[in-house]
Amino acid sequence: MVNVKFLARFRDITGKRSVSIEHNGSISDLMNTLTEKYGNEFKDALFDKKGNLRDYMKIIVNGEDVESNGGLESNVENNDEVVIFQTIAGG
């Protein structure tokens, strides 16, 4: 099982703090599974119209940003922890 934690906006969209999902595969596949489960609002918050991860989104696997470790095609396995959140910018 992969433990997925939702922070901020994603907690509001899903209505959950976390969910455990049976998954062995890429981050991209996991995001597609979550999109199917939580719908268009989840998808629109995560991806732009071209299907790319939005610039202000972060996906962390076992404490490491996926963007610095293989991107969306990096794999997640049983017992991995995935955290999804939107970064906050201020001025």
From TrEMBL:
InterPro entries: Beta-grasp_dom_sf, MoaD_arc-typ, Mopterin_synth/thiamin_S_b, SAMP1_3, Sulfur_Carrier/Prot_Modifier, ThiS/MoaD-like. It holds the Pfam family ThiS. SUPFAM superfamilies: MoaD/ThiS. It comes from the Archaea. Signal peptide: none annotated. NCBIfam families: moaD_arch, SAMP1. PANTHER family: SULFUR CARRIER PROTEIN CYSO, SULFUR CARRIER PROTEIN SLR0821-RELATED. This is Molybdenum cofactor biosynthesis protein MoaD. It comes from Methanobacterium bryantii.
